[in-house]
Amino acid sequence: MSSGRELIVQYRRLGNTDLTPSLLGFGCSMIASLATRHSRGEVEATLRAARDSGITFFDTADVYGQGDSERLLGRVHRDHGDGMILCTKAGLTVGSVESLVRMAKPVLNLLLRRWSTAREVTTGTRRRQERQCFNPDYLRRRIEGSVQRLGVDRLDLFLLHNPPTDLPQRDGVFELLLRLKAEGTLRHVGVSCRSLEDADSWIGQSGVACVQVPLDCTRVDAALPILERAGALGVGVIAREIFSHDALAGRSVPDAFRPIVERPEIGVMLAGMGCRTHLHENLAGIDEALRCVHVA
Question: 88, 61 in Cβ contact below 8 A?
């Protein structure tokens, strides 16, 4: 970011929706969790710097940071809300552990920043507590909670959080979501998918405006049939876990971004950014990737 040139921030329409988010989106799974390595002040400064840099898409969930991810985003939205697109999810639950962890979090965060092994154990324990619940009444309560924590009148985009493709309450869930759309609580609805294979089955579901999928540069070729089908049906695609697996093995950040940037079906690629250094690296990386694509 020291080159002195203006960085490219590209915006793409997300499928057939009326949303045109920044291609680089901010993944908020870690901004308020026990695994966060940076201070709350640095995380909030990073969110504000991201918005000032032109990033408009922020992805969170009701369980991220025991709800604190949404609360923190809500504060930023209150000051920088113009143009921000908030995406949240529900369907995972950690039960009573959620409130206990949130109460103990200030002390635990101080301890876990010093002992990385303790952080890994704590994160693993939390994941083992995760369960799924897609009961329509439960989802309605969680959506209402997200609206309150984010401080908004309606959610720009709501995603079911990694549901099974054989979801027993499938019809009832989408009846609820379509009703909440009609009431004005939800603007658009989609599914965060456990895998590319799951996404293929959700793309044809009535009411699904977009799918979120795990997709790094090493798997773009394998994902082409799914991406092309989504594009043909006007279903938006959000790529997450873009640095997973071997994405950075022998590659620079721009090299890891470029195969994803090249696919027009992908409206958003999510990167977790816990500090301003990470933010600047990702902004510079996508800038270089976009310049290479434009030159090519």
Answer: yes
The pLDDT of residue 37 is 77
| Phi, psi dihedral angles at 50 (to 5 degrees) | -60, -45
Alpha-carbon gap, residue 52 to 18, rounded angstroms: 22
Write the single-letter amino acid at 213: V
- Nearest 5 degrees, angle CA 173-CA 179-CA 183? 145
167 is written with which tokens?
Answer: 């979801």
* Whether the predicted pLDDT of 120 surpasses 60: no
Instruction: Give the H or E element holding residue 289.
Output: helix 276-295
Pairwise CA distance, residues 154 & 184, whole Å: 6
Q: Which of 240, 243, 267 is nearest to 255 (CA)?
A: 243
pLDDT digits (tens, 9 = 90+) for 168-212: 999 999 999 999 999 999 999 999 999 999 999 999 899 999 999
pTM: 0.88
Q: Is residue 123 within 8 Å of residue 193, measured between CB atoms? A: no
